[in-house]
Specification:
Number of helices: 15
Number of domains: 1
Shape: globular
Radius of gyration: 19 Å
Helix content: over 70%
Structural class: mainly alpha
Largest sheet: 2 strands, antiparallel
Number of strands: 2
Strand content: under 5%
Length: about 325
């Protein structure tokens, strides 16, 4: 059955996009600007294919929890087409985070929270903030060919192995999408793809069987999380609007330094894969050590290969 899920996910996504790309070319186009890392206009919104796959999965499995992520995907697609206000996007991200917590309740129960108590209510707010930040951070990382799809793929793969085989459809779908999104890409996933994948990943986490797995599979995406985290902190320090487009992420500065989209995406996706294997094989303790190593590698790349943050900041002003 697993092989069927993979094959179905791959080929249905591949051929859907083959048919759908000409439509998006006429209606949903990403026009390059001075902050883009691509030079030619390309269709975006290809991540709608993941939404369609989840709708099919929900219908046949009669598991309707993934529909929690549907409102955010609709806003994402509208944003790809009309460039919505960041306030609207952020509102729906918070709303989706609250829905995930409310309907799964796994995080709350795992740590025995009583949200009527002031301290635990603060913890709940921190959880909502973390989930919302995660959705944003994955979206921020969708700036070069293949990086988000290839980096989040190992996480979905091991969640499928660990807990829910039907998620192999999403694994296959990501592979099918990468046939079109790998450099040189023919299509971008857009906000409809990045925010939907991030929210569905969180939903899949909160349906795991214990807190260790939730934490473990959250931090296997550390390359995406910490690149965005450090970039946001640096931008706040320099009084920048963190919701404005820019080219200050490490992955962006590595590309500006001369590395190709493929090389940078491989660095990030391979790091995520190593973290997944570490957690599955050795547990949370060894994962924390490997996360430290990956972060150290990031700082080393920042200092020795990437265009400096200060230099890029000057060009942003």
């Amino acid at each position: 059955m697993i092989i069927f899920y993979l094959i179905y996910g791959f080929f249905s996504t591949y051929y859907f996009l083959k048919i759908f790309i000409p439509f998006l070319k006429k209606r949903v186009i990403d026009i390059p600007n001075k902050r883009s890392l691509h030079s030619n206009p390309k269709p975006t919104g290809g991540g709608i294919v993941f939404v369609i796959q989840i709708l099919i999965i929900s219908f046949f499995s009669r598991d309707y929890f993934p529909l929690i992520c549907l409102p955010l995907s609709i806003i994402g697609f509208l944003d790809d087409k009309f460039n919505l206000s960041s306030k609207i996007r952020f509102t729906f991200q918070i709303f989706t985070s609250c829905l995930i917590i409310y309907f799964t309740q796994i995080t709350i129960n795992s740590v025995n929270l009583d949200i009527t108590l002031p301290l635990n209510f603060i913890v709940l707010l921190l959880i909502i903030f973390t989930l919302t930040a995660f959705i944003n951070f994955v979206n921020f990382m969708d700036g070069i060919d293949g990086i988000v799809a290839s980096s989040i793929l190992p996480g979905f793969l091991f969640i499928a192995i660990k807990n829910n085989p039907i998620i192999f459809i999403i694994v296959g779908s990501l592979l099918g999408f990468l046939k079109w999104n790998w450099s040189p890409s023919k299509i971008f996933m857009g906000d409809v793809g990045s925010t939907f994948l991030a929210s569905y990943y969180l939903l899949s986490l909160f349906r795991l069987d214990n807190l260790n797995n939730i934490i473990g599979f959250f931090f296997v995406l550390s390359p995406l999380i910490f690149d965005s985290t450090f970039c946001v902190l640096r931008r706040l320090k320099n009084n920048q609007n963190i919701f404005q487009p820019h080219k200050l992420h490490l992955y962006q500065r590595l590309c500006q330094a001369g590395l190709s989209h493929s090389q940078v995406s491989i660095i990030y996706s391979l790091s995520c894969l190593i973290l997944c294997i570490t957690y599955i094989s050795f547990g949370l303790y060894f994962l924390s050590g490997m996360v430290f190593i990956i972060i150290t590698l990031g700082f080393w790349l920042d200092r020795n290969y990437a265009v400096s943050f200060k230099e890029c900041l000057k060009s942003e002003i």
